[in-house]
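Example 225, ligand FE2/S2 (inorganic) cluster.
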Amino acid sequence: MTHKQEPIAGTKGDVASHDQTKSWFYTDIVKEHFFHPKNFMENDADETHYNAIGKVGSPACGDELRVWMKVNPETEKIEEFKWKTFGCGSAIASTSMASVIVTENDGMTLNEARKLKPQDIMERLGGLPQRKFHCSVLCDKALRDAINDFYRRVEKFDKIVVESSRIIDPVSKVTDHDIEEAVLEGAHTLELVQQKTKVGIGNPNCLPAVEELIRFYKEKYFGAA
Ligand code: FES
């Protein structure tokens, strides 16, 4: 894993975090994409020009991201990828980098793009502060939403992948999506996930499933079990 770590408390970073005990360090690549975003949709989108549109909101912070893609219907390669967000600098840098990755070398196929992980984007950025990982997940989700939109428009319904949440703990009503968000927010142990979500407090039977999900999301987003 090549993520650059969050600087240790007391060391000099780019930005002080909200609790003032740590600073956040942004790599030069992140700053380049933040100050000079690539493929940003500067004006109102001419939606007739695009054949795949995706939108996602972040439960972690309330921000929103939209993407517009032009997909070659024959090859299913992404010819253009434009985006706009109300999100923070990390979301801007991540989406800018994602727009480069999916269109470089003649464009990814939708099948290849669907396999792109937030982790791949972060590695190309040289890392993000841990508390900002969820921002890179925004563009990944918007990309997959746009891929589904393309297949809906061309009526290839079997290629649409629906990601719905399922209840893991019927007592606290915690879903797998709640656990995903907790892991993205930095809760990487059962204890920390329980503090955030209260999962399993009145229903310990679900804890093995919770631990498995924590392992799954850690591997998915951070590349470590
Ligand atoms: S804090 Fe909302 S996208 Fe980064």
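Summary: The mean pLDDT is 87.
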